[in-house]
Amino acid sequence: xxxxxxxxxxxxxxGDSLRLSCTGPGGTFSSFAAGWFRQPPxxxxxxxxxxxxxxxxxTVADSVEGRFTISRDNAKNTVYLQMNxxxxxxxxxxxxAGDETWSRSATRTRADEYAYWGQGTQVTVxx
Length: 127
Description:
Blueprint lengths: L4 E3 L2 E4 L4 E6 L8 E8 L6 E6 L6 E3 L7 E6 L4 E6 L8 E9 L15 E2 L3 E6 L1
Parallel strand pairs: 2-11
Antiparallel strand pairs: 1-3, 3-8, 4-5, 4-9, 5-6, 7-8, 9-10, 9-11
């Protein structure tokens, strides 16, 4: 059973920053493409950002372009989501996702492309 564990959520004010972390299985995480999704209250889960297994390629949603950055440190088996200039509409439960891939450069933007998910971490942005 592959476990992904998110951390770093919390309650912040508009304009603040947060960094989410997602730790995956040691020894194999470098073979995982990874991504972040979020589910706002009363809405469906949506794509936020994705990163290739090498970390060389990233993709972010238009709604967070220029504010959120995804990165990874394979030596620490961890993927990060740096969130700057947070807005109330960023309020959501944020989920980390991962799946093994043979491609070093592919990013995955659809939820159904991922086999493994974390439990989610709440991010609340007050106005």
